[in-house]
Amino acid sequence: MDTYFLSHRGSPMLAARPRAIPILVVSAHWETAAPAVSVVRGSNGTIHDFYGFPAPMYQLKYPAPGAPELAKRTKVLLEQAGLGPVEEDHGAWVPLMLMYPAADIPVCQLYVQPGRDEAHHHVVGRALAPLREEGVLVLGSGSATHNLRQRGTPRSRRRRDGADMATEHLYQLHVALGAANANGGAVRAELIHHSWTGSLSYASYKFTTTS
């Protein structure tokens, strides 16, 4: 199973929907000091963690089923790699609404650590590599650029103070790359979408293990 990094303000995956049960989404919109996963029994809620967008955006719902067993498996893999203890938390619907509009695939969410660096998130990804062989889609949902404050555009609510820059929206790329690079072998990175809105890049990538 290939891994992906998607700039979630665009819709680059509409023509390429890898089937996977379930999906692990590495999210840019929930930040924790240590690795944490969502444990949802029943349906995921839909959090509208942005403001200044058209009203219909706030009516969208994506009640995908939770994936508590994937959450437990993710927790074990991360702790075995020395990245624990891993917290269990609960809630990712963009870009999944575009990729899988039926909301019929179980989803679990993994949170980023904005206080850590790219190397940390690459290690997190490498620890999760066994999930690929188990049919899990590891999907990093972020943004290649995310400086919304300077553009004066609608933006996401942040849980912490500081500049709304790309860093916490790019760590998901390192997790997806790490998951394809568990044994330090070669990985092919394929640009699957590239477009711009002003200074915002929607570049998205697929990572394939080649050796």
List strands and helices in order, with pairings.
Layout: E1 3-7, E2 23-31, E3 36-38, E4 50-51, H1 68-80, E5 87-89, H2 96-99, E6 107-112, H3 118-127, H4 130-133, E7 137-142, H5 148-151, E8 155-156, H6 167-179, E9 187-193, E10 196-197, E11 200-201, E12 204-209
GO molecular function: ferrous iron binding; oxidoreductase activity, acting on single donors with incorporation of molecular oxygen, incorporation of two atoms of oxygen; zinc ion binding
Cofactor: Zn(2+)
Family: Belongs to the DODA-type extradiol aromatic ring-opening dioxygenase family.
Summarize the entry for a quick read.
The chain is α/β, with parallel strands linked by helices and 211 residues long. It is 23% helix and 25% strand. InterPro entries: Extradiol_dOase_DODA (IPR014436), Xdiol_dOase_suB (IPR004183).
Task: Kindly describe this structure.
- This protein is of the alpha/beta class and 211 residues long.
- The chain has one domain (3-209): Protocatechuate 4,5-dioxygenase, Chain B.
- The chain has helices spanning 68-80, 96-99, 118-127, 130-133, 148-151, 167-179, and strands spanning 3-7, 23-31, 36-38, 50-51, 87-89, 107-112, 137-142, 155-156, 187-193, 196-197, 200-201, 204-209.
- The strands form four sheets. A six-stranded mixed beta sheet has the order 6-2-7-1-12-9. The protein has a two-stranded parallel ribbon with strand order 3-5.
- A hairpin with a 2-residue loop joins strand 10 and strand 11 (200-201).
- The longest helix is centred in the middle third of the chain and has 13 residues, at 68-80.
- The protein is globular and about 45 Å long.
- The two termini are 14 Å apart.
- Keywords: Metal-binding, Oxidoreductase, Zinc.
- This is Extradiol ring-cleavage dioxygenase class III enzyme subunit B domain-containing protein.
- Its cofactor is Zn(2+).
- GO terms for molecular function: ferrous iron binding; oxidoreductase activity, acting on single donors with incorporation of molecular oxygen, incorporation of two atoms of oxygen; zinc ion binding.
